[in-house]
Amino acid sequence: MTPEIAIFARWPEPGKAKTRLIPALGAEGATQLYRTLLELTVREARGSGLPFHLRVTGGEKLTRVPTPGMMIGSDCPGLTAALLREAGDALSSHEAVIGPADDGGYWLLGLRAPCPDLFVDMAWSTDAVFPETMRRLEARGIAPHLLPELTDIDTGEDLAAWPDLLA
User: Fold this and answer.
1) Chain segment 104-158, per-residue pLDDT in tens
2) Nearest Cα to Cα of residue 159 among 21, 39, 46
3) What's the burial of 116, exposed, middle or buried (CB within 10 Å: 0-12/13-18/19+)?
4) Considering the entire predicted model, what is its pTM?
5) Sheet-wide strand order for 96-100
6) Residue closest to 6 by CA, chosen among 77, 78, 87
7) Quick one: angle between helices 22-48 and 81-90, nearest 10?
8) Which residues make beta-bridge pairs with 55?
9) What sections of the chain are H helices per DSSP?
């Protein structure tokens, strides 16, 4: 069965999307950057050839993503269709696939079967998310396929490596 990509997104409304970027870009600038990142994410998902759908905040949570499936955010400019294909292919031989983010979280998590305990009582938006997820996978006897580490754009400092995003 082909895994489906669930893209988690926020409605790009000024003052509500990418709020940690507002000090650097203002509410309108943060929203425009988020629109750019979301468009990039959808373009790469489409280019992967894998089925995908968009989940807007306020809708279904991570535990409700059908398996086999992959969950991604919409703020990772290094995301490529090739990485998404690699993740999809990995689920044919691994129970899980994960792409660590340089902030201690992850930019992709793929599961062959449901693992709802991965998401319970998680310290989201902290540098503990990736190591804790790995610990929980290991406790279940799951050795995930590891993808390259990428950068999420959450703060003004994160933009330093991606000056073209503001062009």
Assistant:
1) 999 999 999 999 889 989 998 899 999 999 999 999 999 999 999 999 998 888 8
2) 21
3) exposed
4) 0.93
5) 52-56, 4-9, 69-72, 106-111, 96-100, 145-146
6) 87
7) 60
8) 8
9) 22-48, 81-90, 129-139
